[in-house]
Design brief:
The complex is a heterodimer of chains A (133) and B (260). Chain A has 133 residues and is of the alpha+beta class. Helix content of chain A is 19%, strand content 34%. The N and C termini of chain A lie close together (9 Å). Chain B has a single domain, classed as 2-Layer Sandwich (BirA Bifunctional Protein, domain 2). Chain B is 38% helix and 24% strand. The chains are: A alpha+beta (133), B alpha/beta (260). Strand 7 of chain A pairs parallel with strand 10 of chain B, so a sheet runs across the interface.
């Protein structure tokens, strides 16, 4: 049976399985529970540099699991203002708590209207259910 | 389902990795590529530390190029082997998005390829936990073993709904050369250890299998497993152009290959 995982109500989602939580013009970014499960055990997170300008749906950083390397895309455009340095030594936090201590980066959002290009929790759930396999 | 089949023959390490990335970049339909390496070369995983996990001095002394892959996993000395790369949109053939399941379905094609040349390979269902920088020194999920020894391992990259998986099928394996190119306190002991965990077609069958025989076996395995209708093809002009750029600006540079 397909694993859907947790989908918190308050977050917005991308088709590439990232989430973002927007608060006071800043967005905290991570990958979804579904994504961490599909990736298997994460062994390395190549964090973006603070100051990097991220474009919506453009590559933000890279995660490596025991079996694959995958790109993580920015859900909204902005400047990276903070990264979760703990992941350098504890990449498994992404598996353990993808919406909490497994967050990846915080960005200063350029244009909050870009959020309309993202899915809410219900839409993301339907999207996951509609994926092949 | 139609699938491109591309045989690029012998290429240097930098060109080989540049071509795989270029095909992945433009991928709209499945491509199976087979190739070899003009000289023994080491490829390291995306995140490996070359300084710690490779015997850099010996590589330099024996002129063994080191190239970093965009895929994960551990280091491989590419020597007497045929390498396959399989690039496809992940929604094709109901190919599971689940990474382990995608390994499994590709492993089944490789089992059929080995079967064609008379080798019964087993799909490894559980990873062996062995801390080693050498890919072939441990067997991971859905890699292939013969009599509990690894004969083929693969690595994968996912990019915007597309998959690249590549890996070698060992025609022969030089245990001493491998042991010399990786860090160890005792290369002889390392070579003995590798002998217990790695095998090759030559070791299993006692004969040399040619490149062409291997290529047709791989093609047969993928054809049977995925019900592909293969057509022979070449790289497109845009694939060639991007591969040239990637070779020049990425794969032949120390910035990429030796990054820490």
């Amino acid at each position: 049976m397909k694993y859907i995982g947790k989908i918190p109500e308050e977050l917005k989602y991308t088709k590439e399985h990232e989430w973002v939580k927007i608060e006071s013009a800043h967005g905290v970014i991570g990958i979804t529970d579904y994504a961490q499960h599909a990736l298997t055990d994460i062994v390395f997170v190549e964090l973006p540099q603070v100051g990097k300008k991220a474009g919506q749906f453009k590559p933000l950083c890279v995660v490596e699991s025991v079996k694959s390397v995958s790109d993580i895309f920015a859900p909204v455009s902005g400047d990276v203002v903070e990264v979760n340095d703990n992941l350098s030594n504890n990449p498994e936090h992404v598996n353990q708590d993808p919406y909490g201590i497994g967050w990846i980066a915080k960005i200063k959002v350029f244009d909050e209207s870009e959020v309309k290009n993202l899915m809410n929790a219900e839409e993301y759930k339907k999207y996951l259910e509609g994926l092949e396999h | 389902m139609k699938c491109r089949f591309i045989d690029t023959g012998h290429k240097d390490a930098y060109t080989n990795m540049a071509i795989d990335e270029s095909i992945l970049n433009f991928c709209k339909k499945p491509t199976l590529r087979v190739y070899q390496w003009t000289a023994p070369s080491i490829s390291v995983g995306y995140n490996q530390n070359v300084g710690k996990e490779i015997n850099f001095d010996n590589c330099k002394k024996h002129k063994v190029p080191i190239v970093r892959r965009i895929t994960g996993g551990k280091a491989v000395l590419h020597d007497k082997e045929v390498t396959y790369s399989f690039i496809l949109p992940e929604n094709l053939l109901e190919m599971p998005r689940d990474i382990l399941k995608s390994y499994k379905v590709i492993a089944q094609a490789l089992v059929l390829a080995f079967e064609t040349i008379g080798i019964k390979a087993i799909i490894q269902k559980q990873p062996q936990k062995l801390a080693t920088p050498i890919c072939f020194n441990s067997s991971n999920w859905y890699e292939l073993t013969v009599n509990n020894k690894k004969i083929s391992g693969s690595a994968q990259r996912r990019l915007k709904g597309k998959i690249l998986q590549h890996g070698p099928l060992l025609i022969d394996f030089d245990y001493e050369k491998n042991a010399m190119l990786f860090p160890s306190d005792n290369a002889k002991e390392l070579a003995e250890g590798l002998k217990k965990r790695i095998t090759s077609i030559k070791r299993e069958l006692g004969i040399d299998v040619s490149y062409n025989e291997m290529v047709s076996a791989i093609k047969h395995g993928f054809q049977k497993n995925f019900k592909f209708d293969f057509f022979e093809d070449e790289l497109t002009n845009e694939e060639k152009k991007l591969a040239d750029t990637l070779k020049k600006e990425k794969y032949s540079t120390d910035t990429w290959n030796l990054k820490t």
